[in-house]
Specification:
By secondary structure, this protein is α+β, with helices and mostly antiparallel strands. It is 29% helix and 24% strand. Helix 2 runs antiparallel to helix 6 and helix 3 runs antiparallel to helix 4. The chain is globular. The protein starts with a helix and ends with a strand. Keywords: Hydrolase, Lyase, Nuclease, Nucleus. Its main location: nucleus.
Length: 246
């Protein structure tokens, strides 16, 4: 008997089996479920400041790190929008291009870097502390000039009044406690709560301070009324979270 015939007889379960026509059986492999694994782009990110009016990133883009911050969103009414237009007209005297801010908000944290796997637990912690925080009335009473730490932009902003400041301090203290748990930078030691409304490229703080009285006079005559703050927001990369106050 040939070696091939012997092999066929050994693998057969009966004398009738035909090794020349019966295909071998293979065990199907079970592929792993990859749906829960986050996918990140392999393309290298290149920042182009010409695409956003000369603005420069505060820190470089790193894959897997999510720029995040906590804030209060402000929805401008007609009187508020008229105020911005008046201030922008006044600023035309300094002969510098002046831009309206993309959105109007009051920061309750610095911009922090949050890793992807921490997003769920971080936002849950915010939900816990803010669900026991009361809503309040917010009022602005002063125009102030700020410059960012990199001296790349100067902001014209509205500073909150004394009463609003106390409520905001209470919220930022709670947020700081969470940031400490995650070993992230806390808010400024003596924060000046404000809402930026206009900005200019570069450090133009000295030039704008010279017309600050005129800007405050415009605010005084506009007499913005208080608004009720009942929500706090958090932006993490391209994700948005909103928390209701009691």
């Amino acid at each position: 008997m040939s070696a091939l015939s012997s092999l066929c007889e050994y693998e057969s379960n009966s004398e009738e089996s035909d090794c020349d026509t019966k295909p071998p059986k293979y065990k199907k492999l079970r592929l792993p479920d990859l749906s829960a694994i986050p996918v990140f782009s392999t393309e290298k990110y290149v920042d182009n400041c010409e695409l956003h009016s000369g603005r420069i990133r505060s820190f470089p883009h790193v894959r897997g790190n999510w720029a995040s911050f906590v804030y209060i969103q402000y929805t401008g009414e007609e009187n508020f929008l008229n105020l911005i237009n008046k201030l922008q007209t006044q600023l035309s005297d300094i002969d510098e291009p002046c831009f309206k801010c993309d959105d109007f908000h009051i920061s309750l944290s610095k911009t922090i870097v949050l890793q992807y796997h921490l997003i769920t637990s971080f936002t849950s912690s915010l939900q816990t502390i803010l669900s026991n925080t009361g809503s309040f009335k917010l009022l602005f009473d002063t125009v102030k000039i700020y410059c960012n730490e990199e001296n790349t932009r100067t902001f014209i902003a509205l500073e909150v009044d004394h009463s609003s400041n106390k409520y905001l301090l209470n919220i930022t203290d709670k947020i700081d406690n969470i940031l400490k748990e995650y070993k992230l930078p806390t808010f400024y030691e003596n924060p000046s709560f404000h809402m930026s409304i206009l900005w200019i490229n570069g450090n133009k703080k000295t030039k704008l301070t010279n017309i600050l009285d005129k800007l405050n006079n415009i605010l005084l005559h506009k007499n913005l009324g208080p608004i009720c703050i009942s929500k706090v927001n958090c932006k993490i990369g391209n994700k948005y979270f909103q928390y209701s106050l009691i």
